[in-house]
Design brief:
alpha+beta; six-stranded antiparallel beta sheet; 19 strands; globular; disordered C terminus
Length: 435
């Protein structure tokens, strides 16, 4: 097998018109150590921004329970003693910021949590090199005080949160010195992809539901669907579960090195831990729009329909987002799925993820009855690696179906499937087929 530059991966493909169950296969190692265990379909990966789909699912679950409405002002769930800076854009004080705006990246909240002195990622932990700077002030994981962090970051007060406490940071000062919580444009008028806003959803859901965000997701999403190897925090995973360690590939040295497990306070935007089997369960449910286990079908369709509003009218045409899902359009096809637009893309969605030691991709086509997913534990190779794999997975689906049918144990079938998975232009994988 050729030396390649993804350390470990799980992939899945399902077509309900031709398969009775999803094809799920895993490859490579769970860490940079050659002696580490092989990845398997139950191996848990951190899935980066694909996590946002579950933050959006939690919001829609609250809607289905009658606790909130998508067009409610987020101020409604905050304590009365909270300053308006936590829910009102000061440049547009008469324009409510709604849940709909948060889940469609149109809230006018800032893009991300800033570094300190352009160097230290004080919202990350433990200490070590992640993202653009060096993590600091958080020697252990998880970082759980999402309510306290967003309160102290957005309201002018003494910092009380434990996040970054090892550095003695004043989060509101950091916020103010880096431009503040809010952009200058009117909420709802413009799209800005915001990890900060999706991270804030976890805090708002805790107020709205009266329970912690991880517990709310467990009780209302993971358990009802039977997703046993899924959790926002590593500590909440089942004992003995195999975890893929985030790994970086160094091209000049042609070597892998463990980034190691890490955490960040806006975890709802990117640090869900989940296996390929569990993610397949979720996507299989969403082929039926989450019905009946999560909500009625009509509620679930909302997740994949255009959810953006302009002047109180659902935005047509160039709409980008459903409920955190990227809506599949011809524009999407032209960017990386140009050979698949012949499929039924009605109410189709996708999302990619990229973090230190994680590249992921999911695509869902309810009209065609198809989904595919790719989870990897490597970055430093090609930012489009997971998308390229997903595209090839869908393009070669008929061939894969044949290879993994009655011929799956033959050496020629195994060789051909390995060549397909590892022969993608611009990326490769060091993998051994697990059968």
């Amino acid at each position: 097998m050729d030396d390649c530059n993804i350390r470990g991966a799980s992939v899945a493909y399902f077509n309900r018109n031709s398969l009775s169950e999803p094809i799920i296969r895993s490859y490579g190692k769970v860490s940079s150590d050659d002696r580490s265990e092989d990845v398997n379909p139950e191996t848990v990966f951190m899935i980066a921004s694909v996590s946002k789909l579950f933050a959006g699912t939690a919001v829609l679950k609250l809607v289905s329970q009658g606790i909130i409405n998508l067009d409610d002002d987020i101020c409604n769930v905050l304590p009365e003693n909270y300053a308006k800076s936590a829910c009102v854009n000061p440049f547009w004080p008469n324009t409510p910021v709604t849940w709909r705006m948060l889940v469609t990246h149109r809230s006018s909240l800032r893009e991300s949590i800033p570094t300190i002195n352009n160097e230290t990622e004080a919202a990350y932990g433990p200490t070590g090199g992640y993202v653009d700077g060096t993590a600091g002030g958080n020697p252990t994981c998880p970082l759980m005080d999402v309510v306290g962090f967003y309160r102290d970051f957005m309201i002018d007060k003494t910092t009380e949160t434990s996040v970054g406490s090892g550095l003695g940071v004043n989060w509101f000062q950091v916020n103010s010195e880096s431009g503040g919580s809010w952009e200058e444009y009117e909420p709802g008028s413009k799209t800005l992809y915001s990890n900060f806003a999706i991270g804030y959803i976890a805090s708002l859901i805790e107020f709205a539901s009266g329970t912690s965000f991880p517990d709310y997701c467990r009780d209302n999403i993971f358990v009802p669907l039977g997703m046993n190897n899924t959790a926002w925090f590593r500590k909440d995973l089942p004992d003995g579960v195999l975890e893929a360690v985030p790994v970086e590939y160094f091209g000049e040295d042609e070597a892998f090195d463990d980034t190691g497990h890490y955490c960040f306070i806006d975890y709802a935007s990117g640090s869900l831990r989940i296996s390929a089997n569990d993610l397949s369960i979720f996507l299989n449910s969403m082929l039926n729009f989450g019905a009946p286990m999560l909500w009625p079908e009509e509620v679930g369709k909302t997740a994949l329909q255009c959810a953006e509003r302009i002047d109180n009218i659902i935005s047509p045409g160039d709409c980008e987002y459903g409920i955190t899902w990227n809506i599949l359009t011809k524009k999407t096809a032209e960017s990386w799925l140009e050979h698949l637009f012949h499929l039924d893309w009605s109410l189709g969605g996708e999302h990619a993820g990229l973090e230190a030691g994680s590249q992921t991709q999911v695509i869902l086509l309810p009209g065609a009855g198809i989904y595919a997913l790719v989870l990897t534990n490597t970055d430093g190779n090609d930012d489009m690696a997971a998308q390229i794999l997903t595209k090839e997975l869908l393009l070669k689906a008929p061939e894969i179906d044949g290879l993994l049918g009655s011929q799956r144990s033959s050496s020629s079938a195994v060789t051909r499937l390995n060549q397909f998975l590892c022969g993608i232009q611009a990326i490769s994988m060091t993998i051994m087929l697990i059968f």
